[in-house]
Write a structure and sequence with these properties.
- By secondary structure, this protein is α/β, with parallel strands linked by helices.
- The strands form 2 sheets. The chain has an 11-stranded mixed β-sheet, with helices on both faces.
- Strand 2 and strand 3 form a beta hairpin.
- Helix 1 crosses helix 6.
- The longest helix is centred in the last third of the chain and has 16 residues.
- It is globular and about 55 Å long.
- The relative contact order is 0.16.
Length: about 325
């Protein structure tokens, strides 16, 4: 395959991206969280190409992206809880996992054979424009090799996937910078993955605390994307909660401190989340082990620490 075509966030770019999706091609596109690797979620051959391009295990389900709540309701058994969360947080960085309707029409590869599907309505304007131009469900995990650092710019997509994607819709860096928070609603609400929407805000909307799913010991029993023990990893080893760097390391800081690169000198968790993956890409390019300063474990800090823990896990 030749190098991907770079498309711009304008009507012609959205139309071309939609045409490519309709013909079974892969298109990388921005959301507010990270860049996604999109394919028609109804086309089994196209969805299989996502797994092949990423080197993603087939037991790891995908998130389906849709333009609005009404479209989402055509695929799943909707509930009052889903409606409450959707009205509060869609469009936005929240994914809901719900039971599939019998005649859903999605490829079984999207759900990895599960009776549920993960759905999201993204807020980013280019993502919305593409979804409306395409007029169908788009399966889209992060547009990077499986298990590696997630992409928050078109350049990250190009470096990670290169000619494995037909086109990249380039609309600059992602504003949130962390994948969506995933809440399972097949039974009682459960947190399946911390992400770009703080858990505390979701609990206020629900009026109750969220139960938290443990990472399954058997990776083939995961229920949602982002649950693998090793994920989001740089090529170099990563060490968390470092107050100083050791010989031969580079240090990713947080707050006022001496370091090689700082997630947020003002200790702003929103800024740190938006800069996390870009900073890991930059430091990984140095080819040295990466040490990361302690990150407060509340708000977006919980999602940042989740990503760092999986990046630091044995591979």
């Amino acid at each position: 395959m030749k190098a991907p075509k770079i498309l711009h966030p304008e009507p012609a770019g959205f139309a071309k991206a939609a045409d490519l999706l309709g013909s079974g091609q892969l298109v990388a596109f921005p959301t507010e969280t990270v860049y996604g690797l999109g394919a028609d979620a109804r086309n089994g051959r196209a969805v299989a190409a996502i797994y092949e391009a990423k080197g993603r295990p087939s037991f790891n389900p995908l998130i389906v992206h849709l333009p609005d709540v009404a479209t989402a309701q055509a695929y799943v058994a909707w509930s009052d809880t889903a409606d409450r969360l959707a009205q509060a947080f869609w469009p936005g960085p929240l994914t809901l996992v719900l039971p599939l309707l019998p005649e859903h029409g999605l490829s079984s590869l999207v759900t990895a054979g599960l009776p549920t599907v993960a759905l999201r309505v993204p807020a980013q304007k280019s993502a919305q424009a593409l979804l409306r131009a395409f007029g169908g469900p788009v399966a889209a995990p992060s547009a990077n090799p499986s298990g590696r650092i997630s992409p928050t710019t078109a350049a990250h997509v190009m470096a990670g996937l290169g000619d494995k994607v037909s086109a990249i819709l380039d609309d600059g860096p992602c504003l949130v910078g962390l994948e969506s928070t995933i809440v399972g609603l097949a039974e009682a609400p459960v947190l399946l993955r911390a992400g770009g929407l703080p858990i505390e805000i979701i609990e206020v909307a629900l009026g109750t605390a969220l139960a938290e799913a443990e990472t399954p010991r058997d990776p083939k029993r995961i229920r949602a994307p982002g649950q693998l023990a090793s994920h989001y990893a740089p090529n170099a080893p990563l060490r968390m909660n470092a107050t100083a760097k050791r010989t031969g390391e580079v240090l990713l800081g947080f707050g006022a401190m001496a370091c090689d690169l700082n997630l947020s000198e003002n200790a702003d968790l929103h800024e740190a989340a938006a800069r996390l993956f870009e900073s890991l890409h930059q430091l990984d390019a140095k080819g040295l082990p990466i040490a990361v300063a302690p990150i407060p474990d509340h708000g977006l800090g919980r999602a940042i620490n989740d990503r760092l823990a999986r990046a630091a896990a044995p591979r």
